[in-house]
Write a structure and sequence with these properties.
The chain is mostly helical and 86 residues long. The chain contains three helices and no strands. The protein has one domain. Helix 2 (37-49) packs antiparallel against helix 3. It is elongated and about 55 Å long.
Length: 86
């Protein structure tokens, strides 16, 4: 979880740099499959930094995408394992 969160945060910082600061880097930390805690925590940290910063819906969208990616990867691994064993 720690490595995934740090990697997501670094990718968020990279996206923020590419867009000229239009993307909040905390959104990158929400892509892990700890649904929905990662999204709520990122939104809380953003709100503590700037009270007008409301990223909950964006954070939950990235969090849901991370969850779906984990489900698809798990399904592919299961299919490959059953294909090799069956």
């Amino acid at each position: 979880f720690v490595v995934d969160t740090v990697a997501g945060l670094m990718f968020g910082k990279f996206m923020s740099f590419l867009t000229g600061g239009k993307i909040n880097p905390l959104i990158g930390a929400c892509g892990i499959s700890a649904f929905p805690m990662a999204g709520r925590l990122a939104a809380q940290v953003a709100k503590e930094e700037d009270f007008d910063n409301f990223i909950l819906m964006h954070a939950m969208g990235a969090n849901t995408a991370g969850q779906l990616g984990s489900v698809i990867a798990g399904g592919l691994l299961l299919a490959l394992t059953l294909g090799f064993l069956g």
